[in-house]
TrEMBL record:
UniProt-listed Gene3D superfamilies: Periplasmic binding protein-like II (3.40.190.10), Winged helix-like DNA-binding domain superfamily/Winged helix DNA-binding domain (1.10.10.10)
Any Pfam family the entry gives: LysR_substrate
Source superkingdom: Bacteria
Lineage: Bacteria, Pseudomonadati, Balneolota, Balneolia, Balneolales
Alphabetical UniProt keywords: Activator, DNA-binding, Transcription, Transcription regulation
One CC-aspect GO term: protein-DNA complex
Signal peptide: none
Residues covered by the HTH lysR-type domain: 1-58
Gene Ontology MF terms in the entry: DNA binding; DNA-binding transcription factor activity
Similarity comment: family membership: Belongs to the LysR transcriptional regulatory family.
Protein name in UniProt: LysR family transcriptional regulator, hydrogen peroxide-inducible genes activator
Cited CDD domains: PBP2_OxyR
Length: 310
């Protein structure tokens, strides 16, 4: 029995599909299947019921997988303790980050961090908030970057407050205003992200319900991608809300759409660096947080009054 074999059964349990699990851990499916079969032969039990689709663990398989996770977690902790010894930070550092932050924040701090800590192997994975927290609890992620409050046993660094901006077609009536107020926002007028995205929930908290008939396109389109929402707005369809960093490279008025700021107090989301084990990789976590804070635009440090939307 090896740690590698244990990691393979945990991967299959996570994805419930041999081919998918093999792809995710960068090995061939025959290799994965052979090693799991070898472990089953050694233990004299079936860990997975292969007659089911998706594949599921057997009763004894579930117990073995639970123990395997604990063993792998313990082995990882030993590696982590060794990696933080000495003056040079090194080792693998796995980050779960929500999709409405990843494409806009990571490019800002990636080079400064790599330049400062060249021996740290960064592994990023986009995931919804629920998946990030689950990954922290299971020691899959070392840290997460999210925008909502956490569970009590999760530690956090507050990184920055990110204002919401309104992005609208140049023909929209709200373009006449210098700044817009929360009261100007109606959920019925907005393009939204799919359910499961915390940014959607925060957007709906900003907007107010209105039972009056309003001029609205007879189209419903819920996207999992902020860039898709931008393109819809630019095609003469309504308004959407955007996080500040998603519009950081846009002028207030551009050819395809108009960016409007909110009046004070400016609705904002709190971006957090979260982790589940305070004593492991603490120096690395602290340095990671510092680099991010030093890489964000100066505008995010403005003194304007903000209202945090959780």
């Amino acid at each position: 029995m090896t740690l590698t074999q244990l990691s393979y059964i945990v991967a299959v349990d996570k994805h419930r599909h041999f081919a998918t699990a093999a792809k995710k851990i960068y090995i061939t499916q025959p290799t994965l299947s052979m090693q799991i079969q070898k472990l089953e032969d050694e233990l004299g039990v079936l860990i997975f019921d292969r007659s089911k689709s998706p594949v599921v663990p057997t009763a004894i398989g579930e117990e073995i997988i639970t123990q395997a996770k604990q063993i792998l977690s313990g082995a990882k902790h030993i590696e982590d303790m060794v990696s933080v010894q000495g003056e040079t930070l090194k080792g693998s550092f796995r980050i779960g980050i929500i999709p409405t932050i990843a494409p806009y924040l990571v490019p800002l701090f990636l080079k400064p961090f790599v330049d400062k800590h060249p021996e740290v192997e960064l592994v990023f994975e986009e995931a919804l908030t629920e998946e990030v927290l689950k990954g922290l609890n299971e020691d899959y992620f070392d840290v997460g970057i999210i925008a909502t409050p956490t569970e009590q046993h999760i530690f956090e660094h507050e990184l920055f407050l990110e204002p919401f901006l309104a992005y609208m077609n140049p023909n929209h009536e709200l373009t006449k205003k210098d700044k817009i107020a929360i009261e100007d926002m109606y959920e019925e007028d907005l393009w939204l992200l799919n359910e499961g995205h915390c940014f959607r929930d925060q957007t709906m908290k900003i907007c107010k319900k209105n039972n009056e008939k309003r001029n609205k396109t007879p189209i419903t389109f819920e996207s999992g991608n902020l860039e898709t929402l931008k393109r819809l707005v630019e095609q003469d369809f309504g308004v959407t809300l955007m996080p500040y960093l998603a519009m950081n490279d846009h002028d207030t008025r551009c050819a395809n759409g108009v960016v409007k700021k909110f009046s004070d107090p400016v609705p904002s989301r709190k971006i957090r660096l979260v982790y589940s084990r305070e004593f492991l990789k603490k120096n690395l976590i602290d340095s990671f947080a510092d680099v991010i804070k030093n890489s964000i635009p100066e505008e995010l440090e403005s003194e304007e009054e903000k209202m945090v939307i959780e």
